[in-house]
Amino acid sequence: MIRVVHAAREFAGRRFFFSLLALSLGLELRAQTIWNGPVTNFTQSANSLTDVLVPGAVSLTRAYSQWLFNPAGGDQGPGPGTPTDTEWAFGSLVNYAALGYQTFDSLRNGDLSALLVGHPMVVHLIHENAYLSVTFTAWPQNGGFFAYTRSTPALVAPMVSITNPVNGETFAAPASVKLGATATTVNGSVSNVAFFVNGALFGSSQTAPFNVTDSSLAAGSYALTAVATAGGRSVTSAVVQITVVTPVSSMISSPKLAGGQFSFVYSANPGLSYVVQTSSNLADWFPLATNSALGGTASFTNTISSTEFQFFRVARFPRP
């Protein structure tokens, strides 16, 4: 959507209204947002002179007996058109698109206290293309600190995904499974991540890194989900499926030595990892290969001299 922004500036005591077509000036057109989240109260004081709306871009403060300006936007003080990057209208946020906007300084002729206090307004943050509601609760006409209630950006549901285990992973019973998830939110902070196994609560974590561990999963199939909560809103991750199997004994069979190649097969569980080890004295064992079995048996081949004396064994590879 291309929007014509109306602005006003005062030169030599006369007020001129003009329109700027943002696209023709090459300005960045941001997606329109409505700040319809929880309201917040701001009361200017000696210890809190400025209300920061958009860090580094929009902040509002008042000179003692004058009007608002935007120090974060480059205003050195109140002046024509301040606070920069804002335009104001009286009315309700639900009707923001139909309101007539003007600069704040164009309101300052007359009794601003009577004009502002208790009358709902909508502020358009021009560069951010955001609309928020503002209702002044204090504006001392002869100078002093102002106060208002304003809306905040809408709460956005967090994002969450399970990072451990991976979908389709297989474990040996009784399984010790560490569940981990990443969870983020664009405003506020994630207060809790709950992990569920087949719909039942598995455990929860309140601080990053979000993870829990359980060591008692029996053989079976499990659907894992994580639910992240931030600002009172929750979202559920995609489902991760894992399998826990009763491990079979790893038995070596069909050993043969031919053409300098020693080989054998061993029994295994599909999806579990195994390590083949070798030793020359049955005391010191060294790994030769690890693999994840694709079926009920797996094979191993190694180059070996007919004069060598070696022992081999297969062990199920433990998961961290």
Key attributes of the depicted protein:
single chain, 320 residues, mainly beta, Immunoglobulin-like, 3 domains, 6-stranded mixed beta sheet, 51% strand, disordered N terminus
Could you describe the 3D structure shown?
With 320 residues, the chain is mainly β. The protein folds into three domains: 4-151, no CATH class; 159-245, Immunoglobulin-like (Sandwich), CATH 2.60.40.10; 252-316, Immunoglobulin-like. Helices cover 2% and strands 51% of the residues. The chain has one helix and 26 strands. It has one helix at 112-116, and strands at residues 4-11, 14-21, 33-35, 39-43, 51-54, 58-62, 68-69, 86-90, 121-125, 130-138, 147-151, 159-164, 170-172, 175-184, 190-197, 200-205, 210-217, 220-230, 233-236, 240-245, 252-258, 261-267, 273-279, 286-292, 297-303, 311-316. Strands 3, 4, 8, 9, 10 and 11 form a six-stranded mixed beta sheet that branches. β23 (273-279) and β24 form a beta hairpin. The longest helix has 5 residues, at 112-116. The chain is rod-shaped. Mean pLDDT is 85; it is low at 1-29.
Largest sheet: 6 strands, mixed
DSSP strand count: 26
Q: Supply Rg.
A: 34 Å
Overall mean pLDDT: 85
Described by the principal axes of the CA atoms, the overall outline is rod-shaped
Low-confidence stretches at least 5 residues in length (pLDDT < 50)? 1-29
Cα end-to-end separation: 53 Å
H-E string = EEEEEEEEHEEEEEEEEEEEEEEEEEE
User: In percent terms, what proportion of residues is strand?
Assistant: over 45%
Tally of helical segments: 1
